[in-house]
Write a structure and sequence with these properties.
single chain, 250 residues, alpha+beta, Alpha-Beta Plaits, Pseudouridine synthase, 2 domains, 13-stranded mixed β-sheet
């Protein structure tokens, strides 16, 4: 049972609450993990103020009680799916470290333009970040940081615009735009990717299926939780494949 109500964005919902103070929220595509500095919070996960120093949302509830919800990790605004928060600073700190140490199991679904060739089950690249017009862009670079992803071809589908594939991706690292760049490098652009994708094909799919979004969804997280340094147990949360994916690929 949730201890209090969250001022969530109307397109987001709580998937599960854990008694340790951990919240799993399903973020819609187009919603920010947190507001940008100086901008309105109306397009962010919670429609309330955000403390950038402590990386937490802050508000007073209907009883006048001051609440805090600490952000544990982030998703790109265009990506939908699971995101974790906690109203306990100790839990948030522990899981932030777990993400940093690659101890969290993450699984995504990506719908890509499929060339029909075999797909390797493990991807490894070196990715570097740079600014282009004031925006972060990522590309392969020998001087970059290692990016590793486990890949599984979930299913394929033929459409009037060509063949699509639904990939299940499990990144072992958490580089910026990692999955989008790794897919694009292998000529498997994610449908709807306005930065690294096939722009002409994106427009055609958006028109045919009346759905203009990035087809990347964070579907599962598996975390190990320690309480008071003694008890350890696994918590697995799942966000199902969004209707937009099922509409196209079945």
């Amino acid at each position: 049972m949730q201890p209090f109500t969250l001022p969530l964005h109307k397109a987001c919902k709580v998937i599960e609450y854990h008694p340790s103070g951990l919240w799993a929220i399903e973020k819609a595509n187009g919603v920010l993990s947190h507001p940008n500095p100086g901008n309105s919070h109306r397009k962010s996960l919670l429609t309330t103020a955000f403390d950038f120093n402590n990386e937490c949302y802050c508000w007073s509830d209907e009883t006048g009680t001051n609440r805090q919800l600490f952000l544990i990790h982030r998703l790109d605004s265009a990506t939908s799916g699971l995101i974790l928060l906690s109203h306990c600073i100790e839990m948030a700190t522990q899981l932030r470290e777990a993400f940093s140490n690659r101890e969290i199991e993450k699984t995504y679904f990506a719908m890509v333009n499929y060339h029909g060739l075999p797909i390797r089950s493990h991807w490894q690249d070196f990715l570097g970040k740079h600014l282009n017009g004031g925006k972060i862009r990522v590309s392969t670079s020998k001087a970059g940081s290692i990016a590793m992803t486990k890949v599984y071809l979930e299913r394929k589908a033929h459409t009037k615009l060509g063949m699509l594939a639904l990939l299940r991706l499990s990144p072992k690292t958490g580089r910026t735009h990692q999955l989008r760049v790794q897919c694009a490098k292998r000529k498997l652009p994610i449908i709807g990717d306005r930065t690294y994708g096939n722009f002409q094909l994106n427009r055609k799919y958006a028109k045919q299926f009346k759905c203009d979004r990035l087809f990347l969804h964070a579907t599962k997280l598996k975390v190990k939780i320690s309480q008071k340094g003694k008890t350890e147990f696994m918590w697995e949360v799942v966000s199902p494949l969004p209707p937009a994916f099922r509409k196209i690929i079945g």
